[in-house]
Amino acid sequence: MTELSADNNLQSRDHNINTSILQSPSHPNTFQSSGIEDSTDGDIEDEELRRLLVPKIEDLPLTPPTAIQSNFITYYAPDFMKPGHDQYVHRHANGLCIVGLASTHVAFKDEGGITGVDFNVGKADRSGIKVTGKRKKNAQHFESNTALCKVITKDSSYIVRCCVKGSLLEVNERLMKQPGLLNSSADREGYIAIFMPKLVDWRKVEASFVGVEEYKRLRGIS
C-alpha cells in the first residue's frame, strides 16, 4: 500500500509539472499560440485603419475640391449697393478675406466682358498702398461700402466695393495689365483685393452675406 501510494504521488507530481510547463510563457507552444492571437489582432486593427483612411470610390466627389474650397469659406453679397452688383468674399480660418466679383456680376453681361480695371477711385489710388511687416504698417482701413476700384467694359464702368470693414492689405495689381483674368477666373487669379477685418466687424457684416447654396438659389444656378 505504501509503494502504490508513493507511485500515485509521483504521477500526480509529474502531471502538475507538465501542466505548469505547458502553461509557462517560456514554453514554445505558448509562444506560438500568443503569436497567432497577436497576428489576428494586428490584422483586425490594420483593416480598421485602412477602412478609416481609404475612402470608398463611390463616396468620392466627381471632381476634387479646389484650393479655395479646401482652405476658405465662401460668402456672397448679392446686389451689393446696386442691383446686379454681386460680389464674393473668401474667408480663411485666420480671418483674411479675399474680395472679388461673383460670376453673376452685371459687368460680365456686357459685350466683351471686362476690358480694364482702375484702382484710382475716391481720393487715392488703391494700388499705391504698400503694406509691410507683421504689424501691417501703412495698411488703410475702409468701410464695407467704400469704393475699392472701377471695372471697365466696352460700354460702361462699375464701382466695386470693399464688402468688408477692415484693413486693406493688398490689391491685385495684375488686373491693371491683365483685366481678362476677371473674365476667365474671377474667383481665383482674378480676385480684387485682400482685407483683414477685426473679428467684431466681421461678425456684423457676415450676417448680411449668403452662403453658396443660397446664392445659387437666388441666381438660379444649378
How is the biggest beta sheet arranged? 6 strands, antiparallel
With strands numbered from the N-terminus, the spatial order across the biggest sheet is: 1-2-3-11-10-7
Mean pLDDT: 82
Number of β-strand runs? 11
Query: Which structural class do the helices and strands define?
Result: alpha+beta
The helix-strand sequence is HHHEEEEEEEEEEHHEHH
Number of discrete helical segments: 7
Radius of gyration in whole Å, from Cα? 35 Å
Low-confidence stretches: 24-28
What does this structure look like?
The chain is an alpha+beta fold. It is built from seven helices and eleven strands.
What's a concise summary of this model?
With 222 residues, the chain is α+β, with helices and mostly antiparallel strands.
Blueprint (SSEs and pairs):
Layout: H1 2-23, H2 28-53, H3 67-71, E1 72-77, E2 87-92, E3 97-101, E4 114-118, E5 120-121, E6 124-125, E7 140-142, E8 147-153, E9 157-161, E10 166-171, H4 174-177, H5 180-185, E11 193-196, H6 199-206, H7 212-219
Antiparallel strand pairs: 1-2, 2-3, 3-11, 4-8, 5-6, 7-10, 8-9, 10-11
Features:
222 residues, alpha+beta, 6-stranded antiparallel sheet, 3-stranded antiparallel sheet, 11 strands, 36% helix
